[in-house]
Write the structure tokens for this entry.
Amino acid sequence: MKPRSRRSFLKASAAFGCGLGAAGLSSLSIAGAVVRAADEGLNIIGPRKGFSPQIGTLVSMLTWMRNAILQPAQGLTVTQLDYLHDAKANSIGALLLHLAAIERLYQLHTFEGRKWDDWDEMTVKEWGVPAGLGEAARQTIRGHDLSYYLDRLREGREQTLAELRKRDDTWLMQIDNHWLWGPTNNYCKWFHVCEHESNHNGQIKWIKGRLPDASKSQTS
């Protein structure tokens, strides 16, 4: 259940976050336009009411990416959610639960101070299989309707937002000098949660386009 550095820019993101203080980041503007917290449309990346400036910006990115994940999943049946394209494939249902699992592990790590991969028995029992995917997931993550996966994603995200509301930009910039990728701040860790969903969004769309009845299921 170790996070993987699939893209080299993750380390660069960590270095960027470490090199700028919260005050410096919150003063950034794009093309001279400062995004106000009131401008909270889905496609407006920037601060959000109820959060510190940079945490709000992170929340806007997490929200945008989650919407992109949910769109192609809409209307899928149990059979479609369980579909395995080949012997090594993941199902769409397993990928959705995987996203909920990874978010939960990052909650435990960043909000509760748990050491990565040092999970209690209950966490391993509930989240170990979806976090790891593979054969165990192919055998056991089956037979659930779409609402089952959406509820797990929603519950996890609600908890994430509740915890982020309690924190500020100083916490977001705190550096973990012992992280697997090298010195990494909380901003980069939660940005990884966001880009991790982007990675699997592509997989979900790929699988959806190859469902046996794909002609009846529009890809997004």
